[in-house]
Write a structure and sequence with these properties.
Layout (H helix, E strand, L loop, with lengths): L55 E9 L11 E9 L9 E10 L6 H7 L1 E2 L3 E5 L3 H14 L10 E5 L14 H9 L18 E2 L2 E2 L1 E8 L8 E9 L13 H4 L17 E8 L5 H17 L9 E8 L23 H21 L3 E2 L5 E2 L4 H10 L9
Parallel strand pairs: 5-6, 11-12
Antiparallel strand pairs: 1-2, 2-5, 3-4, 3-12, 7-8, 9-10, 10-11, 13-14
Length: 392
């Protein structure tokens, strides 16, 4: 299958780096660990959701225009992110489960996911007003690629980017969804201002896409847990990183137009992947634990926040075959706690990775959302004796 590069429409905003997604999906900037942020647990080789064998991620990023918002004309700061559990050429469904911490958001396809226990197809993430077009595009893409099915209920989730983006201009098209799907690949995952995370804000800093993983020791099964987030939530004052009140140490650089607000608003979508052999009800338990990772950083699941999490397992291939009987392997509940811990740890780190990778962005009506300043983050960690100093 032909792999396409990520689509970026360029603008010329002074001081903003808007072409990040045009580069290969490597890490052009330091990640949280590179800055000395301490985390619990052992990451996988890439410290990404793609450490779970078979998982592929693709982005389509749309950045265009500047200045005053004109509905339908921009500025545009949005996109689409796609996650395939078994890769884009393997349509074998996976066991899955989902959970909502606060439901002021949308994730389509979850009624059947809950009922059947299977996730069939990719998970896509975009902005709030583009869920419909992306959902329909997934079905069309699957048909064009020759996947054999009579009907489909795709899983498409959203967070709101209307502060930076002309969200009512409906700039995400089915071609952008196709681009995200076709560009999906294993390996390193682009983070920050890319894909569905392009126009997102997290704890008053620039947010977006982030990922991380954990590898359990062999005496706990040696399983991998990978997490990808689209983070767009949280108040600055409650931001805590590695136990340090970073939001209080960096109270300025808030997004400002007529006033600077620091309320609990926005949403977060979390996708958890694992190769551990878990059944749907166990994966729902895994999905719930992602909320504890959000809580570690200061998220409260506020009234206007859509905090929706989905988890799947790549174990038990062929479990959805329609004929005969199926034999599956399942981990006993008594052995699931290390996977809970891995989910919490990877979620926490994925969110911080999103903020560390994101770059300052100016969007609709000149709203400027600042990146988390790396040196000031390190200074705050050092003040509280939490910085992992580089070896000399």
């Amino acid at each position: 299958m032909r792999v396409l590069t990520t689509l970026v429409l360029f603008s010329t905003l002074a001081g903003d780096v808007v072409g990040q997604a045009a580069r290969a999906p490597t890490h052009p900037h330091p990640r949280a660990r590179d800055l000395g942020v301490p985390f619990d647990g052992t990451p996988g080789p890439l410290n990404a959701i793609t450490d779970v064998v078979g998982v592929e991620v693709g982005h389509a990023t749309i950045i265009a225009g500047q200045g005053k918002l004109v509905v339908g004309q921009g500025p545009v700061r949005t996109g689409v992110t796609a996650i395939f559990p078994r890769g884009k050429i393997n349509g074998d469904p996976v066991f899955g489960g989902w959970f909502t911490l606060n439901g002021n958001g949308e994730m389509t396809g979850t009624t059947w996911l809950e009922e059947s226990g299977f996730l069939a197809g990719p998970v896509l993430i975009t902005n709030t007003h583009s869920v419909g077009v992306v959902r329909d595009a997934v079905i069309e893409w699957l048909v064009k690629k020759g996947f054999d099915f009579d009907w489909s209920l795709p899983v498409v989730a959203e967070t709101w980017d209307g502060a930076l983006n002309d969200i009512n201009g409906f700039h995400v098209s089915k071609q952008h969804a196709f681009q995200a799907l076709d560009s999906a690949r294993g390996g390193r995952v682009a983070e920050g201002n890319v894909g569905g995370g392009t126009g997102m804000v997290c704890h008053g800093f620039k947010g977006g896409i982030g990922t991380a993983s954990r590898k359990l020791p062999q005496d706990q099964g040696g399983y991998t847990v990978g997490v990808l987030v689209q983070c767009n939530y949280g108040a600055r004052g409650r931001l805590s990183i590695a136990g340090v009140p970073v939001g209080q140490e960096i109270p300025d650089l808030l997004p400002c137009l007529e006033r600077c607000a620091d309320g609990e608003a926005g949403s977060i979508i979390i996708v958890v992947a694992t190769d551990a052999p878990l059944l749907p009800h166990q994966l729902k338990r895994i999905a719930k634990r992602a909320g504890l990772g959000v809580g570690r950083l200061g998220g409260t699941g506020g009234n206007t926040s859509g905090d929706i999490f989905i988890a799947f397992s790549t174990a038990n291939p062929g479990a959805a075959k329609p004929e005969g009987t199926v034999a599956v392997t399942a981990l006993p509940n008594e052995r699931i706690t290390p996977l809970f811990e891995a989910t919490i740890q990877a979620t926490e780190e994925a969110i911080v990775n999103a903020m560390v990778a994101a770059e300052t962005m100016t969007g609709a009506n000149g709203l400027r959302v600042y990146a988390l300043p790396h040196e000031r983050l390190q200074a705050a960690l050092r003040k509280y004796n939490r910085l992992v100093e580089p070896r000399r």
